[in-house]
Design brief:
The protein has helices at about 50-55, 60-70, 75-80, 135-155, 190-205, 210-220, 260-280, 325, 335-345; strands at about 5-15, 20-30, 40-45, 95-100, 100-105, 115-120, 160-165, 180-185, 225-230, 230-235, 240-250, 285-290, 305-310, 330. The chain is of the alpha+beta class. The two termini are about 30 Å apart. The structure holds zinc ion (ZN).
């Protein structure tokens, strides 16, 4: 076996006020991601405690925030044409890109040489079970078209990711659904780490890590969700975020190689995963779509997406990103990936 899925167990006993001060034992499970070496942590007492840690979504608060932010929203239909930035030069006609209800333009405060925004549809606020696949498909194909135009004009910019933050606990500064294309000459840290780890794996094993991972997960069946067209969906053994779902496009190295079917498959999967999160009463998310450089120099790396939940919208919420995640680089598993995969299958 070329990929090892390692679990390490520790136990702690103490007198618990939750059990009349009787001695109880917590069994801690540490899972190591076979590619990055990062750990995800669970325990027998944590499983199923997601709502205790995250708290229920305050839907009235979301409605209030959505209502109050609607009037001055730059991404709403009456403003998006006149008050959002435009690119200069002749590489992008009109300085923006439009498709269906989506429009792409520069981020007003870029933090990378390539940093574009796609306003995703005309609706100012959407529940997670109302992100239709065709809307996401328009947003993704607009993003890919942008990468193609920019790379053709400025080929030194070869690293791109397509990302999204939804609602303020997930880092979004605007309620209006949107995506961000982030890239330039340099890979993002996690893109770089993953590219390097995949390169080492390929040198050692003469095989693609992600191809081998899919083969293993299909055999095991515990975390494999479904193969649909060019997409393969699963939950990672040692997740980087809450309720993480992984979508892989095997054999597709970078964003410009995505077929129309693959873009539609990504959109369909995102739509289903968000509906699943909504059913679990989560209200926010992040996703990132990773790609090898567009010059085709890394043929052992497929395009893949990570989708995660973030803290729920509620007053005085506690962040889900504290020392364990932010400074120690580890993640908690409040729902085991195997349980997540089993329940997610019902949404396909
Ligand atoms: Zn809006």
């Amino acid at each position: 076996m070329t990929i090892e899925l390692n679990k390490f167990f520790e136990s702690i006993t103490f007198l618990s006020p939750l059990k009349n001060m009787e001695e109880i034992e917590h069994v801690i499970e540490r899972r190591q991601d076979p590619l990055s070496g990062r750990f995800a942590i669970g325990s027998n007492e944590l499983v199923g405690k997601g709502q205790f840690f995250f708290g229920p979504t305050d839907h009235d608060l979301i409605e209030k925030v959505a209502r109050e932010s609607r009037e001055n929203c730059f991404f709403c239909p009456e403003n998006v044409e006149g008050t959002t930035p435009r690119y200069t030069g002749d590489w992008l006609a009109e300085g923006c890109l439009k498709k269906g209800e989506c429009i792409l333009f520069p981020n007003l405060f870029p933090v990378s040489a390539v940093h574009a925004v796609v306003a995703l549809g005309r609706a100012h606020y959407r529940k997670l079970d109302d992100f239709p696949a065709d809307l996401l498909e328009d947003g993704l194909s607009t993003s890919v078209e942008f990468c193609k135009s920019l790379y053709r004009a400025m080929p030194e910019n070869k690293y791109f990711t397509i990302n999204s933050n939804y609602l303020f606990p997930a880092g979004a500064s605007l309620v209006h659904p949107h995506m961000q294309i982030f890239g330039g000459k340099y890979p993002a840290s996690i893109t770089n780490e993953t590219l390097e780890a995949c390169r080492r794996f390929f040198e050692d094993e003469a095989l693609s890590y992600f191809d081998q991972l899919l083969k293993l997960e299909r055999q095991l069946g515990q975390r494999y969700v479904i193969g649909e067209g060019p997409l393969e969906w699963l939950t990672p053994f040692a997740p980087m975020g809450t309720n993480e779902v992984l979508g892989i496009v095997p054999g597709c190295q970078h964003l410009l190689m995505l077929s129309d079917q693959a873009i539609a498959g990504l959109a369909n999967g995102i739509s289903k995963v968000l509906a699943f999160y909504s059913k679990m009463d989560f209200s926010t998310f992040n996703f990132s779509i990773y790609s090898a450089p567009l010059d085709g120099s890394r043929n052992f790396f497929p395009v893949f997406i990570r989708i995660i939940c973030r803290q729920n919208v509620r007053p005085n919420y506690r962040t889900d990103d504290y020392f364990i995640q932010k400074l120690l680089g580890e993640e908690l598993m409040l729902t085991l990936p195997e349980d997540l995969a089993r329940n997610l299958k019902d949404f396909w």
